[in-house]
Amino acid sequence: QVCAQLCRRPCYCPWVPPRCPRGSPLVLDGCGCCKICARRLGEPCDFLHVCDQSQGLVCDYSSASAGTGATCNFEDDEEGCEVNGRVYRDGEVFQPSCKIQCQCLDGGFNCIPLCQEDVRLPTPDCPYPRRVEIPGKCCPEWICEAQDQHLLRDARAAPGASSPLLRFPCQEWGTEWSACSATCGVGFATRVSNQNRYCRLETQRRLCMLRPCPALPAAFPAVS
């Protein structure tokens, strides 16, 4: 009956489909007639203006009786989070960029870096280190400034120079690994160490897991 009252036949749709905001796909309206932008989490909806079913959203009329109108919500009222216009389910792991990895938890999200945040101190072979973005690579890398090249050329030209890299003694040093960042599931531990080919202090990370996270309890059915 609602369809017969609101839907006109034949369909009369705009020649050009609407331009949708990021994270809102083009879908057919409630009449199955014209293409519209799917409504996202928390946005108003009705029979014609449907929610984004690909994100598990339905038009929730539970608040309509209070005069606030229906809004898009998860079908099973499960907590979720929205990042950059996209909705993620509770527990879902995602990467907003190649530099971080996040997990949706209880309506919010926790993120860990995927790039090392090392600290490079000046060394004889690289007295002027600088961190730069490399085209085609996600994480920035350390390079030596142009002044280094003059020093290296001088070192090669010096009598008895056999290697472009100046060798120097290095005593290994490092802190203990920190506690795991997560009490359950996958987390990460950090330490500061100079155990690398350049003998420079850097923050190192490794994955850790104390124990698996317990399964979330099933939601009790609503009592009418």
TrEMBL record:
One of its GO terms (cellular component) is nucleus. It comes from the Eukaryota. Residues 79-145 form the VWFC domain. PROSITE patterns: IGFBP_N_1 (PS00222), IGFBP_N_2 (PS51323), TSP1 (PS50092), VWFC_1 (PS01208), VWFC_2 (PS50184). May play an important role in modulating bone turnover. Promotes the adhesion of osteoblast cells and inhibits the binding of fibrinogen to integrin receptors. In addition, inhibits osteocalcin production. It is found in: Secreted. Residues 1-75 form the IGFBP N-terminal domain. Belongs to the CCN family. It comes from Mohoua ochrocephala. GO terms for molecular function: heparin binding; integrin binding. Its main location: secreted. Transmembrane segments: none annotated. This is CCN family member 5. GO terms for biological process: cell adhesion; positive regulation of cell differentiation; signal transduction.
